[in-house]
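ugh ok fine here u go
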Amino acid sequence: MIPFSGNRLRQRRLADRITRAREKWAVRVLAVARVVTIGSAYIAVRDIPGLTSSFVAIFTALLTFDLMVAAPSLRPQHVDYAALWNRTWQALSQTVASLAKGLSVGLFFGSLTLTGFSDVLGAVLTVGLGYTWASRARRSFTSFVGLLGGLYIFEQIRAIEGFHSVVSIISHVAPVAWRVSSGTLTALLSGWILGIPLGIVTRLFLRRPYRTRGSQAYDPPFEVRPFEEVVHAGREYRLIQVRVEPASPVENMTLAELNWRDEHSATVVAIERQGGNIPMPRGKERLQAGDVLLVLCPVAEADKLEALAKPMLERF
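structure:
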């Protein structure tokens, strides 16, 4: 029996080494493919005018590339086309909306400079508003698209010379706005078309799907997402820490006896205690002086819960 057990152990170690080697190879293939995707997207649109063209093309190419690489299977019957389209459309629509806001701001303040408005103040407002509006979107990329688009069209319009009337201003501004907008939208389409085949080819070389942590193609893993976004608690809820002070009314009480869930709509998520933490404590867990409770509760109840854990004399 001993030699047999030894053989099984050696076989298991060999299988582990092979698995690790395959994973390293797959990660390298994925890294090289992403580099090729980024470079190809830039080459495809480098002749399109506009600061945002190459940036948008690279983002869109990586978006579709990551969606293909993360697909469980490339077999038609295994691909969730509805989910694929929804994720792609959501990201692209947010990008287009942010770009439109940025271009509108740049167009507005750029046109004002032609009538005597301060160049410095126009640039400050263009950059500030463009970034602020765009940064409200979930995906950070859109902030930069709106910012760069607005700044580029602002600078293009500010440099216009030889106008004498409103009609003259429009005749000069319209071609610039069209060139920037059409170039950026062309870059969006080019990146999308480029990323799909490159992602499919890369996925064929991988034994399983891969998801890049920093990708904009899907929501990030739970461990790096804001708590409120994961549990959909909304802004009316928050996580607080409540320390159980000696001689407080809650000392030596069980969580069931506290009844915070019914009275305050609060849930004790964990207890930090000297000697070890207690995640997801049960109702029979008895509180001790010095315990730190991690509590999910409505914002309006936070002060009440913190006061309950203090001695009676400290409440007045």
